[in-house]
Amino acid sequence: AELFGSKFFSKGAKSSGALEHPDKLSPNAHKNLQQSIAKQISGENIHSPLILEEGMKWKQLSVAPEDAQFLETRKFQVTDIARIFRIPPHMVGDLERATFTNIEHQSLDFVIHTIRPWLVRWEQAISRDLIADDDIFAEFLVDGLLRGDIKSRYEAYGKAITDGWLNRNEVRALENKNPEEGLDEFLVPLNMTPAGQEQEGQEQSKMFGALFNDAAERMANAEIRTIESRIDKATMLRPIMPSEDNPLT
């Protein structure tokens, strides 16, 4: 496609063809005619009309670029080169099938499946040939290339903070912001406890429940005794009304 395009456009983007002469030409006549025709349609005379004599006819031989799908072939070249080097098409300017969503995922795929394998090789070579201490190792940090869009990052940061494995200043550092006072503490949800403390918490809950029930029972008994005492006093102070069986006089 490159060679075809180079020759095609160097010749003025005109298809090649043949001249048909009704008579047989001698070698010298053939050579002179070829030179004359080339002079008429090349250089400064390109795109000039061709005048044919002696019954000659023009016959097109090459296939037109649109018939040969020249543009489609050129587009495929870009995709083919990107495929060879494992590069997403949008990174070499091919945005024909690109969208905002698939560009992000193609970029992540490029880091994971193209860049990362080479980084692992370099890490292993550095650790093997340049570092003698077993406690030190080489590692390329690609977190910045895997950050994703702002919505995904903030959702991940929020989960990391609430789960207690990142504090707020660490998140600010990841976003290239200065630390703030009071944001170094790790946050833990109140409704979550370590697995080892679950049984202890249940025992404490049972103990406090028993104390609460005992206190409530004592309060209820005291109220009952108070009510019974008041009923007895009210009965003693109630006036006795006269009747036929029990006259007062």
TrEMBL record:
This is Phage portal protein. It comes from marine sediment metagenome.
